[in-house]
Amino acid sequence: MRALVAACALVLVAGCVAGCGGSGKPTAGQAKMAREAALYEIEGIEKTFHKAATTHNVNLMMSLFAPGAVFNIGTETYTGRTQIRRFFATKNAAFMPQNHWQADTPTYLIRATVNGDKGTLYFECDYIDVKTGKVMATVGVDHEVQKINGRWLILDSAAAPTSLSTKG
Questions:
Q1: Mean pLDDT of all residues in 139-144
Q2: For the chain, which domains are there?
Q3: CB-based burial of residue 168 (10 Å sphere; 0-12 exposed, 13-18 middle, 19+ buried)?
Q4: CB–CB of 160/71 below 8 Å?
Q5: Parallel, antiparallel, or unpaired: how do β-strands 151-161 and 135-148 relate?
Q6: Is 145 exposed, middle or buried (0-12, 13-18, 19+ CB in 10 A)?
Q7: What predicted TM-score, i.e. pTM, was given to this entire model?
Protein backbone atom coordinates (compact mmCIF):
# COMPACT_ATOMS: atom_id res chain seq x y z
CA MET A 1 0.00 0.00 0.00
CA ARG A 2 2.80 2.38 0.91
CA ALA A 3 4.50 1.70 -2.44
CA LEU A 4 1.22 2.41 -4.29
CA VAL A 5 0.76 5.75 -2.51
CA ALA A 6 4.38 6.71 -3.23
CA ALA A 7 3.97 5.78 -6.91
CA CYS A 8 0.76 7.82 -7.20
CA ALA A 9 2.46 10.83 -5.57
CA LEU A 10 5.38 10.53 -7.96
CA VAL A 11 3.04 10.45 -10.98
CA LEU A 12 1.15 13.47 -9.64
CA VAL A 13 4.35 15.47 -9.09
CA ALA A 14 5.68 14.51 -12.53
CA GLY A 15 2.41 15.57 -14.12
CA CYS A 16 2.51 18.94 -12.37
CA VAL A 17 6.12 19.58 -13.34
CA ALA A 18 5.43 18.63 -16.97
CA GLY A 19 2.40 20.89 -17.00
CA CYS A 20 4.45 23.83 -15.74
CA GLY A 21 6.85 23.58 -18.65
CA GLY A 22 4.90 26.02 -20.79
CA SER A 23 6.07 26.53 -24.34
CA GLY A 24 9.67 25.61 -23.58
CA LYS A 25 10.76 29.11 -24.59
CA PRO A 26 13.14 30.64 -22.02
CA THR A 27 11.99 33.64 -20.06
CA ALA A 28 13.76 36.98 -20.51
CA GLY A 29 15.64 36.34 -17.27
CA GLN A 30 16.75 32.90 -18.39
CA ALA A 31 17.87 34.26 -21.78
CA LYS A 32 19.86 37.02 -20.07
CA MET A 33 21.49 34.53 -17.73
CA ALA A 34 22.38 32.21 -20.64
CA ARG A 35 23.90 35.15 -22.56
CA GLU A 36 25.96 36.24 -19.56
CA ALA A 37 27.16 32.66 -19.01
CA ALA A 38 28.18 32.40 -22.68
CA LEU A 39 30.09 35.71 -22.49
CA TYR A 40 31.86 34.50 -19.34
CA GLU A 41 32.89 31.28 -21.11
CA ILE A 42 34.04 33.17 -24.21
CA GLU A 43 36.12 35.56 -22.07
CA GLY A 44 37.65 32.47 -20.44
CA ILE A 45 39.43 31.84 -23.76
CA GLU A 46 41.53 34.95 -23.07
CA LYS A 47 42.57 33.66 -19.66
CA THR A 48 43.55 30.26 -21.04
CA PHE A 49 45.35 31.86 -24.01
CA HIS A 50 47.53 33.89 -21.64
CA LYS A 51 48.12 31.01 -19.26
CA ALA A 52 49.29 28.88 -22.20
CA ALA A 53 51.66 31.61 -23.44
CA THR A 54 53.04 32.35 -19.97
CA THR A 55 53.71 28.67 -19.25
CA HIS A 56 54.83 27.77 -22.81
CA ASN A 57 52.08 25.15 -22.90
CA VAL A 58 51.35 24.51 -26.58
CA ASN A 59 48.86 21.73 -25.75
CA LEU A 60 46.83 24.12 -23.60
CA MET A 61 46.89 26.71 -26.39
CA MET A 62 45.74 24.14 -28.92
CA SER A 63 42.81 23.16 -26.69
CA LEU A 64 41.30 26.54 -27.62
CA PHE A 65 41.18 25.92 -31.38
CA ALA A 66 38.46 24.10 -33.30
CA PRO A 67 39.42 21.49 -35.88
CA GLY A 68 40.02 23.33 -39.15
CA ALA A 69 40.59 26.65 -37.38
CA VAL A 70 42.43 29.41 -39.20
CA PHE A 71 45.04 31.65 -37.56
CA ASN A 72 46.33 34.75 -39.35
CA ILE A 73 49.27 36.75 -38.11
CA GLY A 74 50.77 39.44 -40.27
CA THR A 75 50.98 38.03 -43.78
CA GLU A 76 51.05 34.40 -42.60
CA THR A 77 48.01 32.12 -42.52
CA TYR A 78 47.95 28.82 -40.65
CA THR A 79 45.08 26.42 -41.29
CA GLY A 80 44.23 23.51 -39.02
CA ARG A 81 45.57 22.52 -35.65
CA THR A 82 48.80 21.02 -37.01
CA GLN A 83 49.92 24.25 -38.70
CA ILE A 84 48.73 26.42 -35.81
CA ARG A 85 50.56 24.18 -33.33
CA ARG A 86 53.76 24.45 -35.39
CA PHE A 87 53.50 28.25 -35.34
CA PHE A 88 53.20 28.42 -31.55
CA ALA A 89 55.88 25.78 -30.98
CA THR A 90 58.48 27.19 -33.37
CA LYS A 91 57.75 30.81 -34.33
CA ASN A 92 55.86 32.55 -31.52
CA ALA A 93 58.37 34.41 -29.34
CA ALA A 94 56.21 34.04 -26.22
CA PHE A 95 56.67 30.25 -26.39
CA MET A 96 60.45 30.27 -26.84
CA PRO A 97 62.20 28.66 -23.86
CA GLN A 98 64.65 31.55 -23.46
CA ASN A 99 61.79 34.04 -23.01
CA HIS A 100 60.26 34.23 -19.56
CA TRP A 101 57.30 36.48 -20.22
CA GLN A 102 54.08 37.01 -18.36
CA ALA A 103 51.18 37.37 -20.80
CA ASP A 104 48.50 39.78 -19.67
CA THR A 105 45.55 41.80 -20.96
CA PRO A 106 44.24 44.91 -19.28
CA THR A 107 40.55 44.25 -18.62
CA TYR A 108 39.42 47.30 -20.54
CA LEU A 109 40.98 45.81 -23.70
CA ILE A 110 38.74 42.70 -23.73
CA ARG A 111 35.59 42.76 -25.83
CA ALA A 112 33.28 39.79 -26.39
CA THR A 113 29.99 39.31 -28.20
CA VAL A 114 27.62 36.37 -28.44
CA ASN A 115 24.79 35.51 -30.80
CA GLY A 116 23.44 32.03 -30.18
CA ASP A 117 26.28 29.54 -30.51
CA LYS A 118 28.63 32.01 -32.24
CA GLY A 119 30.55 34.98 -30.95
CA THR A 120 33.61 37.16 -31.13
CA LEU A 121 36.45 37.89 -28.76
CA TYR A 122 39.05 40.65 -28.99
CA PHE A 123 41.91 41.24 -26.59
CA GLU A 124 45.37 42.70 -26.56
CA CYS A 125 48.29 40.76 -25.16
CA ASP A 126 51.08 42.49 -23.31
CA TYR A 127 54.10 40.20 -22.98
CA ILE A 128 56.11 41.38 -19.98
CA ASP A 129 59.61 40.12 -19.16
CA VAL A 130 59.39 38.63 -15.68
CA LYS A 131 62.89 39.74 -14.61
CA THR A 132 62.92 43.30 -15.96
CA GLY A 133 59.21 44.17 -15.98
CA LYS A 134 59.70 45.52 -19.50
CA VAL A 135 56.93 45.06 -22.08
CA MET A 136 58.56 42.92 -24.77
CA ALA A 137 55.67 42.78 -27.24
CA THR A 138 52.05 43.74 -27.62
CA VAL A 139 49.64 41.94 -29.92
CA GLY A 140 45.97 42.47 -30.68
CA VAL A 141 44.02 39.28 -31.36
CA ASP A 142 40.55 39.14 -32.92
CA HIS A 143 38.75 35.78 -32.75
CA GLU A 144 35.58 34.34 -34.18
CA VAL A 145 34.38 31.66 -31.77
CA GLN A 146 31.70 28.99 -31.75
CA LYS A 147 30.26 26.63 -29.19
CA ILE A 148 31.08 23.13 -30.41
CA ASN A 149 30.17 20.04 -28.38
CA GLY A 150 29.54 22.22 -25.33
CA ARG A 151 32.83 24.21 -25.51
CA TRP A 152 33.61 27.62 -26.94
CA LEU A 153 36.44 27.24 -29.46
CA ILE A 154 38.31 29.56 -31.80
CA LEU A 155 37.32 29.16 -35.46
CA ASP A 156 39.17 32.06 -37.01
CA SER A 157 41.79 34.27 -35.47
CA ALA A 158 43.72 37.31 -36.67
CA ALA A 159 46.64 38.76 -34.73
CA ALA A 160 48.79 41.82 -35.35
CA PRO A 161 51.32 43.80 -33.33
CA THR A 162 49.90 46.82 -31.52
CA SER A 163 51.54 49.84 -29.95
CA LEU A 164 51.31 50.75 -26.29
CA SER A 165 50.56 54.30 -27.38
CA THR A 166 47.30 53.19 -29.07
CA LYS A 167 45.82 51.70 -25.91
CA GLY A 168 42.89 53.31 -24.23
A1: 96
A2: 43-166 (3.10.450.50)
A3: exposed
A4: no
A5: antiparallel
A6: buried
A7: 0.80
